[in-house]
Specification:
α3 runs parallel beside α4 and α5 (147-158) crosses α6. The protein has helices at 44-53, 69-78, 92-103, 116-124, 147-158, 182-193, 205-215, 229-238, 253-257, 270-277, and strands at 9-10, 17-18, 25-28, 35-36, 39-40, 58-62, 89-91, 109-113, 128-129, 136-139, 162-165, 171-174, 177-180, 198-199, 222-226, 242-246, 265-267. With 278 residues, it is α/β, with parallel strands linked by helices. It has ten helices and 17 strands.
Length: 278
Protein backbone atom coordinates (compact mmCIF):
# COMPACT_ATOMS: atom_id res chain seq x y z
CA UNK A 1 0.00 0.00 0.00
CA UNK A 2 1.21 3.51 -0.81
CA UNK A 3 2.23 5.65 2.16
CA UNK A 4 1.86 9.41 2.20
CA UNK A 5 3.96 11.97 4.05
CA UNK A 6 2.13 12.94 7.23
CA UNK A 7 3.45 16.51 7.29
CA UNK A 8 2.98 17.78 3.77
CA UNK A 9 0.85 17.27 0.76
CA UNK A 10 2.73 15.25 -1.82
CA UNK A 11 1.97 16.40 -5.33
CA UNK A 12 1.49 13.11 -7.14
CA UNK A 13 0.72 14.56 -10.54
CA UNK A 14 3.37 17.26 -10.78
CA UNK A 15 6.37 15.63 -9.09
CA UNK A 16 6.95 18.29 -6.43
CA UNK A 17 5.87 18.79 -2.84
CA UNK A 18 3.58 21.49 -1.46
CA UNK A 19 3.28 22.16 2.25
CA UNK A 20 0.06 23.19 3.90
CA UNK A 21 1.78 26.43 4.93
CA UNK A 22 1.27 27.48 1.30
CA UNK A 23 -2.51 27.52 1.75
CA UNK A 24 -4.35 30.85 2.18
CA UNK A 25 -7.96 29.55 2.03
CA UNK A 26 -10.00 26.38 1.96
CA UNK A 27 -12.92 25.18 -0.14
CA UNK A 28 -14.54 22.01 1.13
CA UNK A 29 -17.22 19.61 0.05
CA UNK A 30 -19.76 18.63 2.71
CA UNK A 31 -21.33 15.19 2.11
CA UNK A 32 -18.61 12.64 2.78
CA UNK A 33 -16.21 15.28 4.12
CA UNK A 34 -18.05 16.92 7.02
CA UNK A 35 -20.82 14.37 7.50
CA UNK A 36 -22.52 11.28 6.13
CA UNK A 37 -26.27 11.80 6.10
CA UNK A 38 -27.03 13.43 9.45
CA UNK A 39 -23.99 11.97 11.21
CA UNK A 40 -21.03 14.36 11.66
CA UNK A 41 -17.66 12.93 10.75
CA UNK A 42 -14.71 12.96 13.19
CA UNK A 43 -12.91 16.28 13.45
CA UNK A 44 -15.78 18.42 12.18
CA UNK A 45 -15.87 21.04 14.96
CA UNK A 46 -12.09 21.11 15.62
CA UNK A 47 -11.42 21.66 11.92
CA UNK A 48 -13.60 24.77 11.76
CA UNK A 49 -12.11 25.96 15.06
CA UNK A 50 -8.63 25.55 13.56
CA UNK A 51 -9.50 27.53 10.43
CA UNK A 52 -10.98 30.36 12.45
CA UNK A 53 -8.11 30.43 14.94
CA UNK A 54 -5.68 30.87 12.05
CA UNK A 55 -7.89 33.38 10.19
CA UNK A 56 -8.09 31.10 7.16
CA UNK A 57 -11.19 31.94 5.12
CA UNK A 58 -13.31 29.07 3.87
CA UNK A 59 -16.16 28.29 1.52
CA UNK A 60 -18.31 25.20 1.27
CA UNK A 61 -19.07 23.84 -2.19
CA UNK A 62 -21.44 20.92 -2.61
CA UNK A 63 -23.03 19.20 -5.58
CA UNK A 64 -26.03 18.36 -3.41
CA UNK A 65 -28.84 20.54 -4.73
CA UNK A 66 -31.55 19.30 -2.36
CA UNK A 67 -31.01 21.94 0.33
CA UNK A 68 -30.87 25.73 0.40
CA UNK A 69 -27.96 27.69 1.80
CA UNK A 70 -30.05 28.43 4.90
CA UNK A 71 -30.70 24.69 5.33
CA UNK A 72 -26.94 24.05 5.40
CA UNK A 73 -26.36 26.87 7.89
CA UNK A 74 -28.96 25.23 10.14
CA UNK A 75 -27.45 21.76 9.67
CA UNK A 76 -23.97 23.00 10.53
CA UNK A 77 -25.28 24.80 13.61
CA UNK A 78 -27.05 21.62 14.71
CA UNK A 79 -23.69 19.84 14.55
CA UNK A 80 -21.99 22.52 16.61
CA UNK A 81 -20.48 24.66 13.83
CA UNK A 82 -21.99 28.09 14.44
CA UNK A 83 -22.09 31.38 12.55
CA UNK A 84 -21.32 30.06 9.07
CA UNK A 85 -22.68 32.75 6.70
CA UNK A 86 -25.06 31.57 4.00
CA UNK A 87 -22.96 33.47 1.44
CA UNK A 88 -20.05 31.11 2.16
CA UNK A 89 -22.03 28.15 0.82
CA UNK A 90 -22.03 27.39 -2.91
CA UNK A 91 -24.30 24.58 -4.07
CA UNK A 92 -25.00 23.16 -7.49
CA UNK A 93 -28.47 24.67 -7.07
CA UNK A 94 -27.12 28.21 -6.60
CA UNK A 95 -24.73 27.67 -9.52
CA UNK A 96 -27.61 26.39 -11.65
CA UNK A 97 -29.66 29.47 -10.80
CA UNK A 98 -26.77 31.71 -11.82
CA UNK A 99 -26.32 29.83 -15.10
CA UNK A 100 -30.04 30.06 -15.88
CA UNK A 101 -30.16 33.79 -15.14
CA UNK A 102 -27.39 34.20 -17.70
CA UNK A 103 -29.24 32.21 -20.36
CA UNK A 104 -32.99 32.59 -19.75
CA UNK A 105 -35.19 35.59 -18.93
CA UNK A 106 -37.07 35.92 -15.65
CA UNK A 107 -40.45 34.23 -15.85
CA UNK A 108 -39.18 31.26 -17.86
CA UNK A 109 -41.28 28.20 -17.09
CA UNK A 110 -39.26 25.32 -15.60
CA UNK A 111 -40.07 21.74 -14.66
CA UNK A 112 -37.96 20.74 -11.67
CA UNK A 113 -36.93 17.34 -10.38
CA UNK A 114 -35.21 18.01 -7.08
CA UNK A 115 -35.55 18.85 -3.43
CA UNK A 116 -37.14 21.89 -1.82
CA UNK A 117 -33.80 23.70 -1.81
CA UNK A 118 -33.48 23.59 -5.59
CA UNK A 119 -37.09 24.61 -6.07
CA UNK A 120 -36.79 27.54 -3.65
CA UNK A 121 -33.55 28.79 -5.21
CA UNK A 122 -34.85 28.70 -8.79
CA UNK A 123 -38.11 30.36 -7.76
CA UNK A 124 -36.20 33.10 -5.92
CA UNK A 125 -34.08 33.57 -9.05
CA UNK A 126 -37.20 34.53 -10.99
CA UNK A 127 -38.23 31.29 -12.69
CA UNK A 128 -41.74 29.84 -12.70
CA UNK A 129 -42.29 26.22 -11.69
CA UNK A 130 -44.63 24.46 -14.09
CA UNK A 131 -45.53 20.99 -15.32
CA UNK A 132 -46.57 21.91 -18.89
CA UNK A 133 -45.47 24.31 -21.62
CA UNK A 134 -42.00 24.63 -20.11
CA UNK A 135 -38.79 25.78 -21.74
CA UNK A 136 -36.40 24.01 -19.38
CA UNK A 137 -36.29 20.78 -17.40
CA UNK A 138 -33.87 20.97 -14.44
CA UNK A 139 -32.98 17.73 -12.67
CA UNK A 140 -31.06 17.25 -9.43
CA UNK A 141 -31.12 14.84 -6.51
CA UNK A 142 -34.66 14.00 -5.42
CA UNK A 143 -35.00 11.59 -2.50
CA UNK A 144 -38.73 11.16 -3.22
CA UNK A 145 -38.38 10.61 -6.98
CA UNK A 146 -41.33 8.91 -8.68
CA UNK A 147 -41.89 7.30 -12.03
CA UNK A 148 -44.49 9.99 -12.75
CA UNK A 149 -41.80 12.66 -12.46
CA UNK A 150 -39.45 10.80 -14.79
CA UNK A 151 -42.32 10.29 -17.24
CA UNK A 152 -43.27 13.97 -17.30
CA UNK A 153 -39.67 15.14 -17.62
CA UNK A 154 -39.10 12.70 -20.46
CA UNK A 155 -42.15 13.92 -22.35
CA UNK A 156 -41.14 17.56 -21.90
CA UNK A 157 -37.55 17.01 -23.06
CA UNK A 158 -38.73 14.98 -26.05
CA UNK A 159 -41.07 17.88 -26.89
CA UNK A 160 -38.12 20.28 -27.08
CA UNK A 161 -37.49 21.56 -23.56
CA UNK A 162 -33.85 22.26 -22.69
CA UNK A 163 -32.31 19.74 -20.28
CA UNK A 164 -30.12 20.91 -17.38
CA UNK A 165 -28.59 18.76 -14.63
CA UNK A 166 -27.42 20.23 -11.36
CA UNK A 167 -24.53 17.78 -10.98
CA UNK A 168 -23.17 14.45 -12.30
CA UNK A 169 -22.70 12.56 -8.99
CA UNK A 170 -23.86 9.03 -9.73
CA UNK A 171 -24.03 8.09 -6.05
CA UNK A 172 -24.73 9.82 -2.75
CA UNK A 173 -22.98 8.84 0.50
CA UNK A 174 -25.16 7.82 3.45
CA UNK A 175 -24.34 6.12 6.77
CA UNK A 176 -25.66 2.87 5.26
CA UNK A 177 -23.59 3.16 2.08
CA UNK A 178 -23.80 4.70 -1.37
CA UNK A 179 -27.25 5.28 -2.90
CA UNK A 180 -28.30 6.72 -6.30
CA UNK A 181 -27.35 10.34 -6.77
CA UNK A 182 -28.36 13.08 -9.21
CA UNK A 183 -26.18 11.57 -11.93
CA UNK A 184 -28.25 8.39 -11.82
CA UNK A 185 -31.41 10.44 -12.38
CA UNK A 186 -29.75 12.24 -15.29
CA UNK A 187 -28.69 8.88 -16.74
CA UNK A 188 -32.27 7.61 -16.61
CA UNK A 189 -33.57 10.72 -18.36
CA UNK A 190 -30.78 10.59 -20.96
CA UNK A 191 -31.61 6.96 -21.70
CA UNK A 192 -35.29 7.82 -22.10
CA UNK A 193 -34.80 10.95 -24.24
CA UNK A 194 -31.56 10.34 -26.19
CA UNK A 195 -30.48 13.75 -24.89
CA UNK A 196 -27.50 14.72 -22.75
CA UNK A 197 -28.00 17.48 -20.17
CA UNK A 198 -25.99 20.63 -19.66
CA UNK A 199 -24.39 19.77 -16.30
CA UNK A 200 -23.57 22.64 -13.94
CA UNK A 201 -21.93 21.26 -10.78
CA UNK A 202 -18.46 19.89 -10.09
CA UNK A 203 -16.22 19.03 -11.90
CA UNK A 204 -17.22 22.02 -14.05
CA UNK A 205 -15.41 25.27 -13.24
CA UNK A 206 -18.54 27.28 -12.36
CA UNK A 207 -18.69 26.27 -8.70
CA UNK A 208 -14.94 26.58 -8.10
CA UNK A 209 -14.85 30.03 -9.68
CA UNK A 210 -17.81 31.12 -7.56
CA UNK A 211 -16.07 29.90 -4.39
CA UNK A 212 -12.78 31.59 -5.32
CA UNK A 213 -14.66 34.84 -5.97
CA UNK A 214 -16.11 34.64 -2.45
CA UNK A 215 -12.71 33.98 -0.90
CA UNK A 216 -10.70 36.45 -2.96
CA UNK A 217 -7.67 34.13 -3.00
CA UNK A 218 -5.51 32.76 -5.79
CA UNK A 219 -6.40 29.30 -7.01
CA UNK A 220 -2.91 27.93 -6.51
CA UNK A 221 -2.96 28.98 -2.83
CA UNK A 222 -6.43 27.58 -2.15
CA UNK A 223 -7.03 24.02 -1.00
CA UNK A 224 -10.03 21.96 -2.12
CA UNK A 225 -10.99 19.18 0.30
CA UNK A 226 -13.21 16.52 -1.22
CA UNK A 227 -14.13 12.85 -1.21
CA UNK A 228 -14.68 12.24 -4.94
CA UNK A 229 -11.95 11.92 -7.53
CA UNK A 230 -14.08 12.58 -10.61
CA UNK A 231 -15.75 15.76 -9.30
CA UNK A 232 -13.98 17.36 -6.32
CA UNK A 233 -10.41 16.49 -7.22
CA UNK A 234 -10.60 16.61 -11.03
CA UNK A 235 -12.58 19.84 -11.07
CA UNK A 236 -10.32 21.55 -8.53
CA UNK A 237 -7.19 20.48 -10.39
CA UNK A 238 -8.60 21.82 -13.66
CA UNK A 239 -9.38 25.12 -11.91
CA UNK A 240 -5.80 25.36 -10.61
CA UNK A 241 -6.48 24.58 -6.93
CA UNK A 242 -4.48 22.35 -4.60
CA UNK A 243 -6.36 19.21 -3.62
CA UNK A 244 -6.77 16.98 -0.58
CA UNK A 245 -8.77 13.77 -0.75
CA UNK A 246 -10.35 12.44 2.44
CA UNK A 247 -11.36 8.79 2.61
CA UNK A 248 -14.54 9.35 4.63
CA UNK A 249 -16.86 9.50 1.63
CA UNK A 250 -16.76 7.88 -1.79
CA UNK A 251 -13.16 7.41 -2.96
CA UNK A 252 -10.78 4.74 -1.67
CA UNK A 253 -7.00 4.37 -1.84
CA UNK A 254 -7.47 1.55 -4.32
CA UNK A 255 -9.49 3.80 -6.61
CA UNK A 256 -6.77 6.45 -6.45
CA UNK A 257 -4.15 3.85 -7.35
CA UNK A 258 -6.16 2.81 -10.40
CA UNK A 259 -7.11 6.33 -11.52
CA UNK A 260 -5.37 8.96 -13.62
CA UNK A 261 -6.86 11.58 -11.28
CA UNK A 262 -4.36 12.14 -8.49
CA UNK A 263 -4.92 14.44 -5.49
CA UNK A 264 -2.06 16.41 -3.98
CA UNK A 265 -2.60 14.51 -0.75
CA UNK A 266 -4.67 11.69 0.72
CA UNK A 267 -5.90 11.64 4.32
CA UNK A 268 -8.04 9.20 6.28
CA UNK A 269 -10.19 12.13 7.43
CA UNK A 270 -10.16 15.64 8.86
CA UNK A 271 -8.16 14.71 11.99
CA UNK A 272 -5.30 13.40 9.83
CA UNK A 273 -5.44 16.50 7.66
CA UNK A 274 -5.21 18.69 10.76
CA UNK A 275 -2.26 16.66 12.01
CA UNK A 276 -0.47 17.25 8.72
CA UNK A 277 -1.26 20.95 8.93
CA UNK A 278 0.41 21.11 12.34
Amino acid sequence: MCRYNAFSLITLNQGKSMTLADIDAVIMDMDGVLWRGDKPLPGLIPFFDRLRARDIPFALATNNSSKSQADYVTKLAGMGVLDVPAAAIVTSATATATYMQQHYPAGTRVYIIGGDGLKQILTAAGFVRAAYDVQVVVAGIDFELSYAQLRQATLLIRSGADFIGTNPDRTFPTPEGEVPGAGSILAALSAATDRLPVVIGKPNRTMFEAALALLGTAADRTLMIGDRLETDILGARNAGLKTALVLTGIATREQVANSDIKPDGIFAGLPELMAAWD
